[in-house]
Specification:
Blueprint (H helix, E strand, L loop, with lengths): L1 E5 L9 E4 L2 E6 L7 E6 L15 E3 L22 E2 L5 E8 L3 H18 L7 H17 L16 H18 L2 H4 L3
Antiparallel strand pairs: 1-4, 2-3, 3-7, 4-5, 6-7
Pfam family, one: Hikeshi-like_C
Family: Belongs to the OPI10 family.
GO molecular function: nuclear import signal receptor activity
């Protein structure tokens, strides 16, 4: 019924059916997963909403080694299953629900996220820290031919100018929301 594709891995079709409306995929080596995509295989007819026919979910930085405690958490929160080799297997759950149920859950989730998100406009030191971190990550992406950045390398002003233009465009396009997400 569903397929799962983890970036850089083969397509998974080994869905474990729990009941008529619930299923799961096990995703080994979960600590290194950055993106995952779940989609219909077309083997079973399901009525879907056209509001969001597909999506790719970014997981990097969302791993937690404690199990999910309630149904309000994101369906893509990873739950640890420890293997003998100290690797972690995530369990990705799928629930087929009516659009009304999904809308209620999304509004609950969105309100919870708004409450927990840091308010950068009220904390200038946090805002400055996020901006500096963004600049550092951008400048760090310019490495020498060996693939490493030496600690005392001089950064050309043109790189800082490119960062500033890119940073300004992101703020003009969507505000400071991208800084509120910790990565």
């Amino acid at each position: 019924m569903f397929g799962c594709c983890v970036a850089g891995r083969l397509l998974q079709t080994n869905l474990q059916q729990i009941d008529e409306t619930h299923a799961l995929f096990e995703l080994p080596h979960a600590s290194v997963i950055n993106h995952v995509c779940v989609f219909l295989l077309g083997t079973v007819a399901i009525r879907l909403s056209n509001e969001k026919p597909s999506a790719v979910f970014r997981l990097r930085g969302t791993f937690t080694s404690t199990p999910a405690s309630d149904h309000t958490q994101n369906a893509f929160t990873t739950t640890a299953v420890h293997n003998s080799d100290a690797e972690v297997t995530a369990v990705l759950g799928i629930s087929i629900e009516t659009i009304e149920q999904v809308q209620i859950q999304m509004s609950t989730l969105n309100s919870a996220l708004v409450k927990s998100a840091p308010n950068l406009t009220k904390d200038p030191s946090l805002l400055a820290s996020r901006i500096i971190n963004h600049l550092f990550n951008y400048v760090s992406s310019f490495v020498d031919a060996s693939g490493t950045m030496t600690p005392n390398v001089m950064v050309p002003m043109s790189i800082i100018t490119k960062w500033y233009e890119s940073f300004s465009n992101k703020i003009k396009a969507g505000g400071i929301g991208f800084l509120e997400r910790s990565e």
